[in-house]
Amino acid sequence: MSMLNSEDAVAQAVADAKGPLTIRGGGTRAVGRPVTGQVLDVSGLSGVTLYEPGALTIVAQAGTPVAEIEATLAAENQRLAFEPYDLTGMLGTKGATTIGGVIATNASGPRRIMAGAARDFALGVRFVDGAGHVIKNGGRVMKNVTGYDLVKLMSGSWGTLGVLTEVSLKVLPAVEATETLVIDGLTPAGAVAAMAQALGSPFEVSGAAWTDGAVWLRIEGFGSSVAYRADALTALLGKHGDVTRVSDADWTTIRDATPLHGMDSVWRASVKPSDAPALVAALPDGCATLLDWGGGLVWIGQSGGDTTATHGTIQSTVATLGGHATLIKASNAVRASVPVFQPEQPGVAALSTALRARFDPRGILNPGLMAA
Hints:
Layout: H1 7-16, E1 21-24, E2 38-41, E3 48-52, E4 57-61, H2 66-74, E5 78-79, H3 88-91, H4 99-105, H5 112-115, E6 122-128, E7 134-138, H6 148-154, E8 163-170, E9 172-173, E10 177-183, H7 188-199, E11 205-211, E12 214-221, H8 223-236, E13 243-246, H9 252-255, E14 265-270, H10 276-282, E15 288-292, E16 297-302, H11 307-321, E17 324-329, H12 332-337, H13 346-359
Parallel strand pairs: 1-2
Antiparallel strand pairs: 3-4, 4-8, 5-9, 6-7, 6-8, 10-12, 10-13, 11-12, 14-16, 14-17, 15-16
């Protein structure tokens, strides 16, 4: 199917579809079970349709590259506060990450611990359901909460409930200064303890991660405030080790889990921060890990070994801990044979099935992508 460049064209294409459709925007997030179906390319729905800096609101078509949105915001000293992660380096994909893909997958980076997730900044959406109907939900200003639940529902649905055509987002001012405190030589347990102390302090940490044995703690804001908080945190955290201050730390390393790029298989697991050390300890030898969100997000990488067995270990361990894990990168054969997303509890699974039947009665939108 050729690239579509209007919402009406998307609606018509879905209505006319005779079989499964593979929804594709930038083509950068090949996650989930492989879907066999005609490609519905919505990357032509591109462009910012409304931007009101004074209202901290931007509206863009779903196929708009995130880089274009970020450049538009930067010109007004504003930003996407939820810091969406980019999987192109990890998955080796060549397309441009789009805002529709970000919202459909709820792609949220290190700042989530302070600012919130991508779905928390989605004010409204327009999408085409599985019957070809155009649905509008939410609004374009922060005080409009009409249809709030449906906006949240689309975020994280991975294109299985509808094809996003437009999103309205709340944005925030850019920061004046940033400083990162680094503490080397910590185990996962030591790292979680240090991050918990920092996050529990009154010093407004906007990033807390552990990579290559070092904790990274980010402080953002006005210059004088950042300097004061950095001094206070340095003194507070001294018992965990020597604290080094870095003004130019590259947080995309954490956001995109750069140390795991090039590994054969990668997982993304969410657990209570205090449970992160137990998850790391349960992994097979040879796995590499990176902690974000104070330990609440565990990136896991493996090269060689039995990917299917490791996947089972990760999902069973995470289930015991009350969390969930997603296989982000693996061969097509593995992705086709395992539950890529954490299997849902029976009640939740029944609700998910009912929702898909309501929004996609023919079962044609990315069918099976999130199957257990």
